[in-house]
Amino acid sequence: MYKIVFFDLDGTLLNREKQVPQEVKQAIRSLRRQGTIVMIATGRAPYFFTEVRRELEIDSYVSINGAYVVHEGRVISETRIPQTLVEEFTTFAADMQHPMVYLTEQKHVTAQPDHPLVVKDFTELRVGLPSYASEPHRRFPVYQMIAHFPEAYDDLYRQRFPELTILRWSDTAVDAIPRGLSKAQGIATTLRLLGIPREQAAAFGDGPNDLEMLQYVGMGVAMGNASKELQRHADFVTRDVEEGGVVYGLRHLQLIP
Description:
This protein has 257 residues and is of the alpha/beta class.
């Protein structure tokens, strides 16, 4: 039996309207009643899912793709991007005329809040537009960078910055995090703290940044709306998020009635 379950947010716990379905809320309550630990594992920064945490009464999470890990309200791990690397990436993106957003501990900031791609991508996320700051990459410690450009530039950035992992999350935006950092690393830190072997952990996800997580835990569940590539690496493929995928998957694992 699995003692702990990690859930991605977008496309997993959250449907396409960025809402948590009522049956998912009931499933989370059922898990907790029987003593199963429930955590969120997301690429989002904590301030992007405050309301979801309140809704689900969850205060433990792996956030910013493993850069900021919290257990019962206490930070247990944090990884900032080295300042020299932030400077180099920012200069390169500026030369390419690609706007940037920076995730800091307290907020997301940009020097180009009105850029069409920034507005588009953050409107789709429904987390609010980033605040403005002059040269934000020099004013705040940065946990993750977001660059806005089409997929055709992915390889160029990956070749130029081998120290970073580039994770695409929309047709015009990528996350940039230190290489080796991932949700899986944040999960490993959490499991060591709790003394739970990874074979007794399960995880649900749908995006490219969920691959390492699904491979690391004892039971990796891909949503039906996940890419075929992610599904190939999962232990089980559940239904689409709009078809009760989380509840169906938990029942398949016999974690809820």
